[in-house]
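Below is a filled-in request sheet from our internal design queue. Each sheet records the structural input a requester submitted and the sequence that came back. We keep these sheets so that new team members can see what a complete request looks like end to end.

REQUESTER: design group, bay 2
PRIORITY: normal
MODE: inverse folding
CHAIN LENGTH: 86
BACKBONE (tokenized):
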């Protein structure tokens, strides 16, 4: 399951991709990744996510700072119920 922080980064990348009219296929080509990987990253159903090297490459592609993909403040994660009772 992706964290709220990871989902925030993924959403910022997706918005940047869409604002530049770049398809998942085009982004995959530019990053030397599979189209399937891009789709799995953008889907909350799969555990795939961007790593720091990806963020750096995305910043190069979109001519921006890697910080542009990060939230301005920390994101407090919701506690997950792991089935442990007290």
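RETURNED SEQUENCE:
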């Amino acid at each position: 399951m992706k964290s709220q922080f990871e989902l925030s980064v993924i959403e910022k990348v997706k918005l940047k991709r869409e604002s530049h009219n770049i398809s998942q296929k085009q982004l995959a080509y530019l990053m030397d990744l599979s189209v399937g990987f891009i789709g799995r990253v953008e889907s909350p159903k799969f555990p795939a996510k961007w790593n720091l090297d990806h963020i750096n490459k995305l910043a190069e592609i979109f001519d921006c700072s890697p910080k542009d993909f990060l939230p301005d403040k920390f994101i407090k994660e919701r506690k997950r119920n792991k089935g442990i009772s007290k």
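SHEET NOTES:
- The domain at 4-69 is CATH 1.10.260.40 (434 Repressor (Amino-terminal Domain)).
- The helical segments are 4-19, 24-31, 35-42, 52-61.
FILED BY: M.R.
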